[in-house]
Amino acid sequence: MEPSFAGKVALVTGAGSGIGEATAKLYAAYGAKVIVADLNEKGGNAVVDAIKKGGGEARFVKCDVSQAEACAKLVEETLRAYGRLDYACNNAGIGGEQNMLADMSVEGFNKVIAVNLSSVFYCMKYQIPAMLQNDGGAIVNMASILGQVGFAYSAGYVAAKHGVVGLTQNAGIEYSAKGVRVNAVGPGFIDTPLLSQADAKTKEGLVSKHPIGRLGTSEEVAELVIWLSSDKASFVTGAYYPVDGGYLAP
Ligand code: NAP
């Protein structure tokens, strides 16, 4: 049986594009009202329009998740709009500066930590109390295969994603018994605008690292987020789930 999120409210960050977009649309398809949060107004509003066209309910909230106050406001606006918060997918992220560690700028390192890691702390800090006001909830943080292993020229990104896995474990330990399950998803390389800088040869190289022989799709990641959010995953918390075409298997 498919999960039903009727009467529930889901918040997705970075929902104006790629994995976040697919996740927001799938939450809506299963009946949740969705807050589409993104820095990118054009992308976010387009996702809201698509959800509404499909008969769902959604609202766009502009939010820079690297700012704690903006994350607090995002949760306030969610409660003002829909009165509750049941599910959150903390997904917004950037690729960040690519350089050998000693050549990586301090600004570049700090930026990817702010957008990809501190944001997850800020979001959970405000989402968890909001969930506890009602029936609890479920949080899915977007890590990466690079939350488990390294990747050359990406020290900041790799450090941030390892941090997301650690934050997820801690939140799971602290809040599962209170009614908020917290898990992390680790996509392999997924064909989204995030990979738009990669040329054909680089993409080929990335494909070769996935035993399944291709990159993933945003929808394949969204399916795992939905399952982890749903009651079908009622005993799953504090955990990391790869969705990576076998990248981590060898
Ligand atoms: P994407 O298509 O670039 O979408 C990310 C969205 O987040 C964009 O709309 C982006 O806006 C937005 N965003 C960027 N900085 C933000 C901020 N400070 N506050 C709010 N929104 C912000 O990327 P994606 O591939 O779907 O990636 C989503 C998540 O999956 C990221 O956390 C990424 O690290 C993770 N992931 C991706 C892959 C992959 O191969 N694609 C693999 C593993 C993990 P702009 O368009 O304005 O930048």
From TrEMBL:
This is Oxidoreductase. GO terms for molecular function: oxidoreductase activity. NCBIfam families: PRK07231.1, PRK12826.1-2. The keyword Disulfide bond does not apply. The keyword Oxidoreductase applies. Gene3D superfamilies: NAD(P)-binding Rossmann-like Domain (3.40.50.720). The lineage of its organism: Bacteria, Pseudomonadati, Bacteroidota, Chitinophagia, Chitinophagales. Keywords: Oxidoreductase. InterPro entries: NAD(P)-bd_dom_sf (IPR036291), Sc_DH/Rdtase_CS (IPR020904), SDR_fam (IPR002347). Belongs to the short-chain dehydrogenases/reductases (SDR) family.
